[in-house]
Amino acid sequence: MTSTNLYERLGGERGIASLVDDIVESHMQNPRIRARFLPYREDPDHLEVVKGHLRDFLAAGSGGPVEYRGRSMPEAHRGMNISEAEYMAAIDDILGVLDRHGIDAQTRQEVLGIAYSLKGEIMHV
């Protein structure tokens, strides 16, 4: 087991910011979920707010020195009726970005575990 926490293994503040940028872009390119993300391109200010929440959520959840102040997962996804296929498409994007960034297998598994732990809070709420 490594002595660095997940936040550090994800690259800290800079690494997480880069990951979030690439994850959101992957979602915008993914045919299964891009319709949910492409509208953000037309509102860059809102896109930056969303990315900020994602950065803070990932940083706080991975042991970083950040406090997440956004909505809870059920509140943020309420009424979206996210399907299993959409959820899995998002997970695939996340794992693909982690791989492209050279994130090691153990760290990817930890992120996957966190993502799966949130599934019930995100899908069909």
Automatic annotation (TrEMBL):
Alphabetical UniProt keywords: Heme, Iron, Metal-binding, Transport
Gene Ontology BP terms: oxygen transport
Coiled-coil features, chain-numbered ranges: none
Entry-linked PROSITE patterns: GLOBIN_FAM_2
Single GO MF descriptor: oxygen binding
Lineage top rank: taxon: Bacteria
Pfam families in the cross-refs: Bac_globin
Residues that hold heme according to the record: H53, H77
Cited InterPro entries: Globin-like_sf, Globin/Proto, Globin_bac-like_CS, Hemoglobin_trunc
Cofactor: heme
Protein name: Group 1 truncated hemoglobin
Native source species: Halomonas heilongjiangensis
Lineage: Bacteria, Pseudomonadati, Pseudomonadota, Gammaproteobacteria, Oceanospirillales
